[in-house]
Amino acid sequence: MLLAAQRFERVNWAAVEWDIRQKGYSIIPRWLTKAECYTLRDLWSSSDCFCPTVEMDRHHFGIGQYRYFHYPLPEFLQQFRHEMYPYVANIANHLWSTSRNPSPYPPTLEQFLEACHAAGQNQAGVMMLHYPTHGYNLWHQDRHGSLLFPLQTILVLSESGTEFEGGKLLVQEEYPQKPAERHIIGGNIGDVVVLCTASRPRYGHGPRSGEFYHGVAKVTSGERYSLSCLFHDE
Questions:
Q1: pLDDT for 141-150, tens place per residue?
Q2: Do the Cβ atoms of 225 and 158 come closer than 8 Å?
Q3: Which listed CATH number (3.30.450.20, 3.40.50.720, 2.60.120.620, 3.30.420.40) goes with 6-229?
Q4: Half-sphere exposure of residue 73, counting CA atoms within 13 Å on the CB side?
């Protein structure tokens, strides 16, 4: 499986940035083919790719399993992560820049990962998740370590309505002195969801930032696979 650069170039990144600014997430629909989703899902049965399985219920995260990939990543995921990074870094530098640090994120993933590794963050920030019937994932943020990239992606690898029911991707924003805002994202097989990792910049009387969380609603039947790709190592 190889990714042509043209696939990234065809994405309307200005629209993605607008979505991130307005609601904290954006869906790139049907970015992966079904065949690519099935090929990625087949990796789940390969112990050569992964660190040991984590059972969510043992850690009170929910019900399901996830597995971190270890380095070297499978070629498709290595290419996906490195080729997409410059686009999301450009968005991050627009939305999270400050007068003191106008370009906080370097232009290449290699440079950003060098900083992660220097800070002792060496675990590849890419994992596959499996939710069986009744599986779910509680509200959380993927923020382990001192260095954090403000955007992440979730690749939806199962077909809603055919392979599973329920299991919607959810987001929640929390701000001081106001009720939390929750949104159902959904997403279907082949979609790539770009979302805020821990906060979404808000603009009004000067930039403000609220806490941003995501989770997965209960799978009512079938099973759901997804792949979480962080641009920082943990």
A1: 998 889 999 9
A2: yes
A3: 2.60.120.620
A4: 23
